[in-house]
TrEMBL record:
Annotated metabolic or biological route of this protein: Metabolic intermediate biosynthesis; chorismate biosynthesis; chorismate from D-erythrose 4-phosphate and phosphoenolpyruvate: step 4/7
Keywords: Amino-acid biosynthesis, Aromatic amino acid biosynthesis, Oxidoreductase
Protein name as it appears in the record: Shikimate dehydrogenase family protein
Transmembrane listed as a keyword: no
Origin species: Flavobacterium quisquiliarum
The keyword Cytoplasm belongs to this UniProt entry's keyword annotation: no
Length: 250
């Protein structure tokens, strides 16, 4: 029996994405004979304005994932957004509809929420989100759905955002979940880590890093040394990828 999902192209939109999780994941998925004929490739563009040309030159594309730094920048190029993508303000999945329109979705929030929930205990009441980019917006939305208040941390303090210099022992007493949404610590710069007073981590903290390569970043290693429960972004990526696959096929 010929599968209805044959001969379709998908890909990842981003910049400097040779390390891509998505390409490896979907390529492996498509080795299953049920998905034979599907393909997945990286679309590495130096700036978002090349997106229009990319779409024009690849009319047979059926879906895209979106990664750094285009989760927010791609939105003006889309015809419509899902309700949750609109609320989040970031897109990591694009569906090419039957009418030829481009619709943006966010599956990051789903992947993060599903991977964090099993770790939560009653004492995990508040979260610090390190970084303010597109990925952090999905994380914030997931925390809202979980009823967990959060504060953003950036290199510069702004309204509703604190800077790293303000983080101290009291901060760690008040915030039991620390989530790294920055690229700091990604391979090959694996010795780097967010500027935190790691001595204040305890066994009552969760240290969550959206980075998956390396599997244990310096941020996670230093947190674990103080007893924190640690989690990298691998499971989040699997959950969000499978959610994207469902969106492309619905």
């Amino acid at each position: 029996m010929v599968d209805i999902l044959l001969r379709r192209r998908f890909g990842l939109l981003g910049r400097n994405i040779s390390y891509s999780f998505s390409k490896g994941y979907f390529t492996e998925k498509f080795k299953n004979e049920v998905f034979a004929g599907n393909s997945y490739e990286n679309f590495d563009i130096s700036e978002i304005n090349y997106f229009t040309e990319l779409i024009k030159n690849n009319p047979d594309l059926k879906g895209l994932n979106v990664t750094i730094p285009y989760k927010e920048q791609v939105i003006p190029f889309l015809d419509k957004l899902s309700r949750k993508a609109t609320l989040i303000g970031a897109v990591n999945t694009i569906k090419f509809t039957k009418s030829g329109k481009l619709k943006g979705y966010n599956t990051d929030y789903y992947g993060f929420k599903k991977s964090l929930e099993p770790l939560l205990e009653p004492h995990h009441k508040k979260a610090l989100i390190l970084g303010t980019g597109g990925a952090s917006k999905g994380v914030a939305f997931a925390l809202d759905e979980l009823g967990i208040p959060y504060t953003f941390v950036s290199r510069e303090a702004k309204e509703n955002i604190i800077d790293y210099d303000l983080i101290n022992a009291t901060t760690f007493d008040n915030f039991q979940i620390i989530i790294n949404c920055t690229p700091v610590g990604t391979s090959p710069n694996i010795d780097a880590c967010p500027s935190l007073p790691y001595e204040f981590f305890t066994e009552k903290h969760i240290a969550y890093d959206l980075i998956y390569n390396p599997a244990e970043t310096t941020f996670l290693k230093l947190s674990k040394e103080k007893g924190a429960v640690i989690k990298n972004g691998h499971d989040m990526l699997i959950f969000q990828a499978e959610k994207a696959w469902k969106i492309w096929n619905k």
